[in-house]
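Exercise 4. Each item below gives a protein and its sequence. For each, produce the structure-token representation.

Item: Transketolase (Petrotoga olearia DSM 13574).
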Amino acid sequence: MKKSLKELKSLSLIARGDILKMTTVANSGHPAGSMSSIDMFLSVLNRANIFPEDPFNPDRDRIVVSHGHTSPGFYTALGRMGFIDIEEVISGFRYAGSIFEGHVTRGIPGVEWSTGNLGQGLSAGVGMALAAKKRKKDYRVYVFSSDGESSKGQIAEARRTAIKEGLNNLIVLLDYNDIQISGRARDILSVNIVGEYKAAGWNLIEIDGHDFEQINKALEVAENEPLRPTVIVCKTNIGRGVSFMENTPTYHGKALTKEQLSKALEELGLENDVEKYIERRKNMALTRDKLNYPNIELKVETGQPIVYEKGTKVANRNAFGNAIADLAKLNKDNFPVVAIDCDLKPSVNLGKFEKVNPEGYIQIGIEEHNAATIGGALSVSGVLTFFADFGVFGLDEVFNQQRLNDINHTNLKTVVTHCGMDVGEDGKTHHEVNYIGIVRSLYYTKLIVPCDANQTDKAIRYAAKVPGNFVIAMGRSNLPILLDEKGDVYYGNDYNFEYGKLDIFRKGKDLTVFTYGSFAHLAVEAADKLKEENIQITVIGVPTPLDFDLIQVKEFVDNTIVLTLEDHNVENGLSNELSKAMIRNSLKPSYFEPMGLRDYTPSGTINDLLKIYGYDVESLVNKMKGLIENK
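Answer:
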């Protein structure tokens, strides 16, 4: 039941006490900023179409707290509005056995997005608002932001996208208290917040952020804006309600002592019952239940794979473009299928997708950080989402955004092309040679590096259907279609992609090569040439280099010369994963040599670079013969 403004005013006083108590109990946290935002939190929770008894209703309004350190305020507001138990929050805030972490955490009823890394919340809100438009839903998205984070470039990126996409269902409430951890925001880095939103074309409203009448009138205007997103710039006082905390940076990230708390609660006219919560905290367990992440599940129709014929050369990125165009045709009447592009449509081959599904093609421009976060937010909101980019941009440049997607357990399918030195002439700034190491750093993201166009097609369809984050990495060049030892297409009609399964392209007794991606065909060609000299080489493809079962190829590893061949930084690629797997499975090769990149590579054609570094077929043949002769 909605509360009156009079009730909200009374509740805000109680909420300020809750904020102070929980941070004192935890002896850490951000009390003062929470007290400047609490009136906005309560107002939105009171107005929004949300349901404490059904917090993950798919038709609910979404609320994103970009300045996630104000979690004491937002948790308090959720508790006082019936979403969570306020006593559990006050007792358990920032405790290892509690779900109420120091920054807002997705999975808690009412929390849509884990934040804390400032500057990403608006992009997440844009993604959720865009999902509503694509799904033809009428829910709104409210984003709470702060003046301190407003200097970050990703916010400017998100502002522009919101205007481009006409997101009139997006409302930002910006806490403008002019204080951050190091002092006055205007002294640290002056930002013309009002001017920048105006220049971007947003509907702008300025109010007193502690006046419930003004907050609610502004929200009513924003909720009925027909064309544009709205920003409500709320002038506030940090530490509002406690005289010695107001307008001072000291308590931005510092809890009150018990003595200070007693003084503050007396000033607020509230009971000091903090000892009750301190005692309760002492008896809390260190373990806790896992949170559930309420992604909207999709039943993806994968269709029939495209099989590319032997004798042809097809770039994996072309196979990707064909596959997602097919997926769009199959599924777009059931749910939106979206491909996010950062001004690379011809290079990442999204042209066909745009032709068959123009409403699903989203051009973000050269705004990779914004694009990665928007993609993550779309993917949890009932949209099958692909984010296509060059490897260095889609992974290296946006590692923090992809890390937040991982933390938020999104369902994003990131397809990175132009990986390795296969980018050739673009040179070292564009050679993505660390993607295995980057994805290794994420806990909930799977990696696939397909070996030819046929495997790419099947891997894309697999990743589309399986919930969770996937990175599918590929190079630029046209590659031959891989054949088995009989000369038939290896990844033909009978092949089904299985995550973790190794592919045995050739079998031999003299040496074993583990490889993947754009180097797989080179190893196969070298093996075929050596066979002419009666030298038997095993070639094993590892399309999932972070997760594979080595036991299935034990006979080709134990007491055998083992070589890894990869277009990747040798220090954080397949060789590391294979070494761990051999130790884990008590397998001992007679000799082990990693072949991979040991320095940044220059501009040049891929064929010239292969020769320079000894990865062309002739050099590989000589390398393998040398290892066998010297064993």
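Check: The longest strand covers residues 561-569.
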